[in-house]
Specification:
The N and C termini lie far apart (30 Å). The relative contact order is 0.23. A seven-stranded antiparallel sheet has the order 4-3-2-1-7-6-5. The chain is mostly beta strands and 108 residues long. It is globular, with a radius of gyration of 13 Å. It has one helix and seven strands. The model has no long low-confidence stretch (mean pLDDT 91).
């Protein structure tokens, strides 16, 4: 699994393979497979086949998260204070909820 460069004083809480649903015009979305990283300071998502960070939110930029369903899959949406939404799904979705709570992010 890919790794991220940690800043001084930053520690990894959890990471896992997930799918990120990026909204596009017309109400549909592109789905990107990659790795989500949760540290004590930020949440990042890196697309698997590139070194591109699709999103990176510092703890101070996160308003909270919600949990929902899409068909039979559980999804987590991270809400930024700038009113952006980042939706992910995948096997570690329950662990992701725990990681977010551990870093101090509230379920809304």
């Amino acid at each position: 699994m890919a790794d991220i460069q940690l800043e001084p004083g930053e520690s990894l809480i959890g990471q896992g393979m997930m799918a990120y649903w990026e909204p596009v015009l017309g109400g549909s979305c592109d789905v990107w497979r990659g790795t989500i990283f949760v540290t004590n300071k930020r949440v990042c998502f890196r697309i698997s086949w590139t070194s591109h960070m699709e999103f990176e939110l510092k703890l101070s930029e996160i308003r909270g998260f919600t949990v929902g369903k899409h068909l039979f899959a559980t999804k987590v949406t991270i809400h930024s204070k700038a009113k952006e939404k980042f939706t992910v799904t995948g096997f570690p979705v329950k662990k992701l909820q725990g990681w977010l709570k551990q870093m101090g992010v509230q379920k809304i």
